[in-house]
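Below is one protein, fold included:
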Amino acid sequence: MTTRLDTPASVLAVSRSPLHAFSKVPQPEVRLAAGVGIEGDAHAGKDVQHLSRRAAVPPPNLRQVHLIHAELATAGFSVHPGELGENITTRGVDLLSLPRGTRLHLGEQAVVELTGLRNPCKQIDGFQRGLMRLLVGRAADGTIVRKAGVMSIVLVSGIVRPDDTIDVELPDGAHEALAPV
Protein backbone atom coordinates (compact mmCIF):
# COMPACT_ATOMS: atom_id res chain seq x y z
CA MET A 1 0.00 0.00 0.00
CA THR A 2 1.30 3.45 -0.93
CA THR A 3 0.75 6.71 0.89
CA ARG A 4 0.57 9.85 -1.20
CA LEU A 5 0.86 13.39 0.08
CA ASP A 6 -1.32 16.15 -1.27
CA THR A 7 1.15 18.95 -1.86
CA PRO A 8 1.18 22.01 -4.05
CA ALA A 9 4.73 21.03 -5.02
CA SER A 10 6.21 21.93 -8.39
CA VAL A 11 9.41 22.17 -10.39
CA LEU A 12 10.95 25.66 -10.36
CA ALA A 13 13.83 24.91 -12.74
CA VAL A 14 15.67 22.08 -14.50
CA SER A 15 19.41 22.15 -15.22
CA ARG A 16 22.16 20.02 -16.69
CA SER A 17 25.79 20.21 -17.78
CA PRO A 18 27.80 17.87 -20.00
CA LEU A 19 30.90 18.87 -17.99
CA HIS A 20 32.00 17.83 -14.52
CA ALA A 21 31.62 21.42 -13.33
CA PHE A 22 30.23 22.75 -10.05
CA SER A 23 27.19 24.55 -11.51
CA LYS A 24 24.68 23.38 -14.11
CA VAL A 25 22.90 25.43 -16.80
CA PRO A 26 19.11 25.96 -16.58
CA GLN A 27 17.20 24.41 -19.50
CA PRO A 28 13.64 24.71 -20.86
CA GLU A 29 13.32 20.95 -20.26
CA VAL A 30 15.37 17.85 -19.45
CA ARG A 31 14.79 14.20 -20.32
CA LEU A 32 15.13 11.70 -17.51
CA ALA A 33 16.17 8.22 -18.65
CA ALA A 34 15.30 5.23 -16.42
CA GLY A 35 18.37 3.76 -14.73
CA VAL A 36 20.63 6.45 -16.18
CA GLY A 37 19.71 9.99 -15.10
CA ILE A 38 19.38 13.18 -17.09
CA GLU A 39 20.36 12.82 -20.72
CA GLY A 40 23.31 15.07 -21.57
CA ASP A 41 24.37 15.51 -17.94
CA ALA A 42 27.89 14.56 -16.79
CA HIS A 43 26.47 12.60 -13.84
CA ALA A 44 24.18 10.37 -15.93
CA GLY A 45 25.04 6.68 -16.02
CA LYS A 46 24.29 3.32 -14.44
CA ASP A 47 27.60 3.49 -12.53
CA VAL A 48 28.68 6.42 -10.36
CA GLN A 49 29.96 9.33 -12.45
CA HIS A 50 31.06 11.71 -9.71
CA LEU A 51 34.82 12.07 -10.23
CA SER A 52 35.74 11.76 -6.54
CA ARG A 53 33.66 8.57 -6.15
CA ARG A 54 34.81 6.60 -9.21
CA ALA A 55 36.78 3.43 -8.57
CA ALA A 56 38.33 0.62 -10.63
CA VAL A 57 34.95 -1.07 -10.33
CA PRO A 58 32.51 1.84 -10.00
CA PRO A 59 29.57 1.35 -7.63
CA PRO A 60 25.96 1.77 -8.85
CA ASN A 61 25.02 5.39 -9.44
CA LEU A 62 22.69 6.42 -6.59
CA ARG A 63 23.31 10.07 -7.56
CA GLN A 64 21.71 10.19 -11.02
CA VAL A 65 19.57 13.26 -10.29
CA HIS A 66 20.27 15.94 -7.66
CA LEU A 67 17.25 17.86 -6.35
CA ILE A 68 17.32 20.93 -4.12
CA HIS A 69 14.43 22.93 -2.67
CA ALA A 70 14.14 26.59 -3.68
CA GLU A 71 13.20 27.40 -0.08
CA LEU A 72 16.79 26.61 0.97
CA ALA A 73 17.82 29.40 3.33
CA THR A 74 20.71 31.22 1.67
CA ALA A 75 20.41 34.55 3.50
CA GLY A 76 23.09 36.98 2.36
CA PHE A 77 24.03 34.87 -0.67
CA SER A 78 22.87 35.05 -4.26
CA VAL A 79 22.09 31.51 -5.43
CA HIS A 80 20.14 30.78 -8.61
CA PRO A 81 18.76 27.46 -9.92
CA GLY A 82 21.48 25.07 -11.05
CA GLU A 83 24.30 27.00 -9.40
CA LEU A 84 24.75 24.48 -6.56
CA GLY A 85 24.96 21.64 -9.08
CA GLU A 86 21.35 20.51 -8.81
CA ASN A 87 19.41 19.14 -11.77
CA ILE A 88 15.96 19.95 -10.44
CA THR A 89 15.04 22.89 -8.23
CA THR A 90 11.74 22.27 -6.43
CA ARG A 91 9.29 24.41 -4.53
CA GLY A 92 6.63 23.46 -2.02
CA VAL A 93 8.12 20.18 -0.78
CA ASP A 94 10.53 19.67 2.14
CA LEU A 95 12.90 17.27 0.41
CA LEU A 96 15.18 16.86 3.41
CA SER A 97 12.38 15.49 5.60
CA LEU A 98 11.34 12.76 3.17
CA PRO A 99 12.37 9.14 3.86
CA ARG A 100 14.64 7.01 1.71
CA GLY A 101 12.65 5.32 -1.05
CA THR A 102 10.22 8.22 -1.50
CA ARG A 103 9.14 8.49 -5.12
CA LEU A 104 8.65 11.85 -6.77
CA HIS A 105 6.38 11.88 -9.80
CA LEU A 106 7.64 14.76 -11.94
CA GLY A 107 5.43 16.15 -14.67
CA GLU A 108 3.42 13.74 -16.79
CA GLN A 109 5.61 10.61 -16.66
CA ALA A 110 8.99 10.82 -14.94
CA VAL A 111 9.52 9.16 -11.55
CA VAL A 112 12.63 9.38 -9.37
CA GLU A 113 13.32 7.55 -6.10
CA LEU A 114 15.22 9.29 -3.30
CA THR A 115 18.41 7.45 -2.37
CA GLY A 116 20.00 9.86 0.11
CA LEU A 117 21.38 13.27 0.96
CA ARG A 118 23.93 15.23 -1.00
CA ASN A 119 27.09 15.51 1.04
CA PRO A 120 28.21 19.13 0.46
CA CYS A 121 31.87 19.58 -0.48
CA LYS A 122 34.36 22.40 -0.05
CA GLN A 123 33.66 23.55 -3.63
CA ILE A 124 30.61 25.31 -2.19
CA ASP A 125 32.85 27.84 -0.44
CA GLY A 126 34.75 28.22 -3.73
CA PHE A 127 31.45 29.19 -5.33
CA GLN A 128 30.60 31.72 -2.56
CA ARG A 129 32.79 31.99 0.51
CA GLY A 130 30.88 31.15 3.71
CA LEU A 131 27.97 29.41 1.96
CA MET A 132 29.05 26.01 3.30
CA ARG A 133 28.10 27.15 6.84
CA LEU A 134 24.47 27.42 5.69
CA LEU A 135 24.45 24.01 4.00
CA VAL A 136 26.05 21.99 6.80
CA GLY A 137 25.14 22.46 10.45
CA ARG A 138 24.75 20.56 13.68
CA ALA A 139 21.59 19.38 15.41
CA ALA A 140 21.13 19.87 19.16
CA ASP A 141 22.53 16.35 19.74
CA GLY A 142 25.69 17.19 17.75
CA THR A 143 24.88 15.19 14.62
CA ILE A 144 25.71 16.75 11.27
CA VAL A 145 22.75 18.19 9.36
CA ARG A 146 23.17 18.34 5.59
CA LYS A 147 20.94 20.82 3.73
CA ALA A 148 22.34 20.75 0.16
CA GLY A 149 19.53 18.68 -1.33
CA VAL A 150 18.81 15.05 -2.07
CA MET A 151 20.01 12.49 -4.57
CA SER A 152 17.86 10.09 -6.58
CA ILE A 153 17.71 7.46 -9.27
CA VAL A 154 15.36 7.52 -12.26
CA LEU A 155 12.71 4.78 -12.23
CA VAL A 156 10.50 6.00 -15.10
CA SER A 157 11.71 8.05 -18.08
CA GLY A 158 10.08 11.33 -19.05
CA ILE A 159 10.45 15.00 -19.85
CA VAL A 160 10.54 17.45 -16.93
CA ARG A 161 9.98 21.19 -17.31
CA PRO A 162 9.69 24.21 -15.03
CA ASP A 163 6.19 24.49 -13.52
CA ASP A 164 5.56 20.73 -13.77
CA THR A 165 3.78 19.31 -10.74
CA ILE A 166 5.46 17.02 -8.22
CA ASP A 167 3.47 14.22 -6.59
CA VAL A 168 5.14 12.78 -3.47
CA GLU A 169 4.69 9.02 -2.91
CA LEU A 170 5.94 7.77 0.45
CA PRO A 171 7.29 4.22 0.75
CA ASP A 172 5.35 1.50 2.55
CA GLY A 173 6.44 0.32 5.99
CA ALA A 174 8.82 1.95 8.43
CA HIS A 175 10.46 5.09 7.12
CA GLU A 176 14.26 5.25 6.92
CA ALA A 177 15.84 8.71 7.22
CA LEU A 178 17.98 9.88 4.33
CA ALA A 179 21.74 9.49 4.82
CA PRO A 180 24.59 10.81 2.64
CA VAL A 181 25.24 8.93 -0.61
